[in-house]
Amino acid sequence: MNPRAPPLRGSLPPEGADPAWGGPAPDRPAADSPATRLATRLAFLVAGFGLACWAPLVPFAKQRLGVGDGVLGALLLCLGVGSVVAMLWAGWFSARHGSRPVVIAGGLGVALLLPLLALADAPLTLGLALMLFGAALGSLDVAMNVHALAVERDAGRPLMSGFHALFSVGGLLGAAAMTALLSAGWSPLAGTLLGSGLMLAAMALVAPRLLRATPAAEAPTLAWPRGPVLLLALLAGVCFLVEGAVLDWSALLLTEGGLLAAAQGGLGFMVFSVAMTAGRFGGDALCARLGDRVVLTAGGLLAVGGFVLVLLAASAGPAMAGFFCIGLGASNLVPVLFRRAGAQTVMAPGLAIAAISTTGYAGVLLGPAAIGFVSQLVGLPIAFALLAALLALLPLLAHRVVARPA
């Protein structure tokens, strides 16, 4: 690796960023080894798997508690609040003490808390469980990205897209496994216990292979997005909001619309995850060939078209095709936004990317709660139509996003 090479763009700043990211560089061991790459990939896999296991459980939780969309939206807000608060803590803690303990604690928390989501039989109990589950997910999410960038920088070649693809693979496996188990007659609790066991086994492989990085002397300062970074952050929030809505509400949209039975409700998110994964594996080559502006425009239009297909579908087949279009179209939108954040000059690249990450993940975790409140007022199909309108901002503003050379 060339020690003078600039930081790779499109990811969170490393633990104790070097001067190119606006801070001192830590004295840490080399990260370019198969073991650390395996640990990082498994951490992303666990995060995606644990989050996706919750999607097929939403209709069962609603039925078990006997609540409406408004109350369910409030419960999902608990998950988001726990996540965002934990993200702020995890970023500071990782900078001061290294990401390794946060990755381990977050991964174990996700695994151990998942069965509680199937046990909670009262709104208050489920709200508390979702808040803790969200805190574990948020901590893991921030810390694994910090760890991934350290591995990528020491490797001297792009790895972040592959790591994030593993998050998508985890989402696909989690949704598929939980849907298959529920369809086979397993109870939600039995399904979550099996999922928990698989995640604990993965974390047993992760823990000893993570970097034991020397922490930075001072934690990074929290920076609010401004100028072009603010536009990038808002668009990232929209993209993540769409992903969160598909995760938390697609099963209800399909089952309450009479397109699928409750046990098969997770198929929509599973198809979305397949398309998202495929798009991310090929995203780097696509951007290199067509350019960021074309990818933003074409991807945004394809995703909006997918929403239209889902909302007009009279049977499960067209609805599944719509979710595939949404996933494929949206798959490379966020990576492009991260890359443009590295190109702007208003803020240090590391701070800009961290600000966009926080805004984006707030969208995926807090946004679905807003969908619940909108659904309570005007219905879930109209709430999804509003998501499509927001997503149309990506192709409309693509020329502004790429106005500065990358």
Automatic annotation (TrEMBL):
Species of origin: Hydrogenophaga luteola
Name assigned to this protein: MFS transporter
Residue stretches making up the Major facilitator superfamily (MFS) profile domain: 36-406
Localisation per UniProt entry: Membrane
Topology in membrane: Multi-pass membrane protein
Keyword NADP among UniProt keywords: no
Pfam families noted in UniProt: MFS_1
Spans traversing the lipid bilayer: 38-58, 70-90, 102-120, 126-151, 163-183, 189-208, 229-247, 259-282, 294-314, 320-338, 350-371, 377-398
